[in-house]
């Protein structure tokens, strides 16, 4: 389906959130919550490939254009409150789907409000990223977006030096990554703003967790996935074969098919 409209919702602290809606703009459907180093545009290929819901609404979380600023009081609670505003203004959701940091936001939201179905792809939770937090802080204080992109891609994602160099060689791609890196320290630090919850998604009727086949059981994404899965023992666990953390960019059609299969199962 094609994008129908972009909506803008005020969320507090003088900030706002935009939402790209595909399909029927007033019909509750799938709501997508991207994670760190990602925005609504990065999920366009998945949104256009999904047809199991009458609409797909992709949240462009605060801190990335054209949404508003992070604000000084930013925390995971901020994200949950923002998403609550979006869900209320959209008229709810049949399914809430979050990726990475967005997966944690989705699961936390399902602690606070009843939801029919929550799906999370490789959600992260503390101690994810703890080893790089001081260096991300230094990069943030220096407004060194190049360093922040390098830290995320080399030291967290574990990309080969040649891959990162190829990204840097493309001015358009690297410029987009620098923009997405602006909120990454605040997002990573938010994981440590309060103790990790003992359980997640307690008010969801159904929870499905997805792990990429190449990450299963391996640090950092697979082990963080396991940390989350232990907090949702009733969740269905599913594997996307042959894929890693960036399946929405590298295999959007395959990810869309899995989401549709989970919708049918729910």
From TrEMBL:
SUPFAM superfamilies: alpha/beta-Hydrolases
Keywords: Hydrolase
Superkingdom as given in the UniProt entry: Bacteria
UniProt keyword annotation of Acetylation present: no
InterPro entries (UniProt xref): AB_hydrolase_1, AB_hydrolase_fold
Oxidoreductase recorded as keyword: no
GO molecular function: hydrolase activity
Coiled-coil regions, chain positions: none
Pfam families for this protein: Abhydrolase_6
Domain AB hydrolase-1: 30-257
Name of the protein in question: Alpha/beta hydrolase
Source species: Streptomyces parvus
């Amino acid at each position: 389906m094609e994008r129908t409209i972009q909506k803008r919702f005020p969320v507090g602290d003088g900030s706002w959130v935009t939402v790209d809606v595909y399909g029927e703009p007033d019909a509750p459907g799938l709501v997508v919550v991207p994670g760190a180093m990602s925005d609504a545009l990065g999920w366009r290929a998945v949104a256009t490939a999904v047809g199991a819901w009458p609409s797909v609404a992709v949240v462009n979380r605060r801190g990335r254009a054209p949404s508003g600023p992070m604000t000084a009081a930013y925390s995971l609670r901020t994200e949950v409150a923002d998403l609550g505003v979006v869900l209320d203004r959209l008229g709810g959701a049949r399914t809430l789907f979050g990726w990475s940091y967005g997966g944690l936001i989705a699961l936390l939201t399902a602690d606070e409000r009843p939801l029919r179905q929550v799906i999370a792809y490789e959600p992260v939770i503390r101690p994810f990223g703890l080893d790089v937090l001081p260096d991300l802080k230094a990069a943030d204080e220096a407004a060194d977006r190049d360093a922040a992109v390098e830290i995320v891609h080399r030291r967290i994602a574990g990309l080969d030096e040649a891959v990162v160099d190829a990204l840097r060689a493309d001015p358009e791609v690297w410029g987009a990554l620098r923009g997405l890196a602006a909120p990454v320290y605040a997002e990573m630090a938010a994981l440590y703003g309060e103790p990790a919850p003992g359980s997640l998604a307690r008010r969801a009727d159904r929870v499905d967790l997805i792990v990429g086949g190449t990450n299963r059981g391996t640090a950092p994404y697979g082990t963080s996935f396991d940390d989350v899965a232990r907090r949702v023992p009733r969740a269905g666990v599913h594997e996307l074969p042959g894929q890693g953390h960036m399946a929405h960019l590298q295999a959007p059609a395959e990810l869309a098919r899995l989401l549709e299969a989970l919708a049918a199962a729910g």
